[in-house]
Amino acid sequence: MNTTGTGDAGELMEETMTATGDEETSDEAALRLSGHDGLRADIYRLLARLLREAPDADLLGFLADLDIIEDNGDLKTSWKALTLAAATARPEGLERAHFRHLIGVIQGELVPYASWYLTGSLMEMPLVELRRDLKRLGFERAPDVKEPEDHIAAMLEVMAMLIESDPEQQAIFFQRHLASWGSDFMTDLARVDTPFYASVGQLGHTFLQQEAALNVPDETPRAIASTTLFDSPDSSRHDPSTP
After folding, report:
1. Strand 139-141, strand 67-68: pairing
2. Is 163 exposed, middle or buried (0-12, 13-18, 19+ CB in 10 A)?
3. Can you give the pTM of this predicted structure?
4. Helix (H, G, I), strand (E, B) or coil at 212
5. Cα(first)–Cα(last) distance of the chain, in Å?
6. Which of 94, 149, 179, 186 has the smallest number of Cβ neighbours within 10 A?
7. Cα 114 to the chain's mean position, in Å?
């Protein structure tokens, strides 16, 4: 992904989880990553951003212009579906779709919380266990965020930060808190009637399936056979994943 352009696009995501006792920001840590792990962190953040709120025009334009330059089977197919959907989507339409699909227990068609997926209720033991591990890892919920920490977007953000700052813990966190439900949620999202959000679900499902094979605790992580790299054909466009 091109990270050197300049422009007016906003940040790719606004983190809801923050590291405690660490002066280095997640963005600063990301600058030290390159290649496969840097790409993984970017994808986690992109998915988190798209699930937390509807994309603005800058982010849609960035996604529509992505050029997939390596063949990686299902993942490449998912990226192409997302770029095609982004090219025809409009921010105002996606705001309504985001609310309809993802907001609230009553209004939303999907409930993007681990507790709900694993127990059928909110604020249950999966959230308690997650909070315990987040505290151990040095993460806390941002003061202005009211939603529980087991929102799918927050957990994807934590994975991105662990890749950057504590890679030895990423497999444990993934297996304890995402493996049991994250891919199922993405599969449900891929079935919604909004092409853009269906493509987000398709990409998320494919990516998390690959992450499940990679994040195996107590084993040497298995690299994905072929890394998907992408770039924007317009070098002047700012990558929304950077401030």
Report:
1. unpaired
2. buried
3. 0.77
4. helix
5. 14
6. 179
7. 15
* Helix, strand, coil percentages for the chain (3-state, nearest 5): 55, 5, 40
Q: Which portions of the chain are predicted below pLDDT 50?
A: 1-15, 17, 20-33, 219-243
Taking a C-beta distance cutoff of 8 angstroms, is the pair 201, 187 a contact?
yes
Cα distance between residue 156 and residue 13, in whole Å:
11
Centre a 10 Å sphere on the Cβ of residue 172 and count the other Cβ atoms it contains: 16
Measured between alpha carbons, how far is 5 from 11 in angstroms, rounded to an integer?
Answer: 13
- Kindly report the number of other CB atoms within 10 A of residue 35's CB atom: 9
Tens of pLDDT, residue by residue over 39-57, are: 999 999 999 999 999 999 9
By the 8 A CB rule, do 10 and 125 touch?
no
CA distance 160 to 108: 26
For the segment 61-85, what is each residue's pLDDT rounded down to a tens digit?
999 999 876 556 889 999 999 999 9
